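Summary for the funding panel

The consortium committed to producing paired sequence-structure records for every protein in the target list. Below we show the first two records in order, beginning with the earlier of the two.
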Amino acid sequence: MFNIRARMSTIYSRILLFNILLVIILSLVPQLIYIHYFSNAYNQEINRQSTQDVSKLKYAVDETILDRVIRLVNIYFSDIPSNEVLAYPLTHDISGNGFKIAEVSNFLTEPKQPMTAKALTVI
């Protein structure tokens, strides 16, 4: 009779151990799969959002900064009659001509009107 009890207790302990391991495995495996799936989805969303933010920033920089720089070049350094004062030093030496230097300085310090449609058609 003692042998039957010992044998039964080892069987119960094995079944208990097997059930505990089975519960642990069955509860951890889906969690690991979900963690892997959601981390991949999260990383893809972060990459997509970052790419979208960089694109928006690129367009914002292009529109605000580069457009102003291009306008600056078109306004001040294009070969139109209103820019003759600024275009002259590009082709001639004015280092000894105080009048031309003052003329360029005065032209640069004058407030400029924003570009109009008429000025854009000339450019």
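The next record, for a separate protein in the list, is shown here:
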Amino acid sequence: MTEPTTEQLAKIALASAYQAECLAMCNRLFHRDSPYRPMRAYQALGRRNPVDAVAYIAEVIDKGSEGLGRLAKIGRIGDSFEASVLHPRWARLFDDRLREVARGRLRDAAAEVPAIAPQVAEILATERIQFDQDAAYQLAGMTAPTTT
């Protein structure tokens, strides 16, 4: 068996931090007077290793789930997997196609529940700001610092 590369180890560490953040998002909903408690997602994340947890979240976003709609109805769209994959900190874990699916699902949720439109706009703007910073570094011929 070959030793993992530094890049592979870094991705595993990032996946582990992301898994912990997603479990914390679920936990926040358990500790509020929330009508939505994502027990299935919490259990699924807790049973998986970090790399498999990232794959699980990608699959949930790809297929769509009732969780996003339920979070939209209670004004907690920021605690959705779709919002989380767009955060610049996790960008290296997900491909452009999945991020586009997440953007589309967030926009659809905002169309169905107009009250969350400002939250969705903020989520999309945060992602865009990071993209612009990365593009500026690239144009300058520099490597953007990694966020951890």
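Regarding this second record: The CA atoms of residues 72 and 139 lie 38 Å apart. The helical segments are 6-30, 39-47, 50-63, 66-73, 81-85, 96-112, 117-139.
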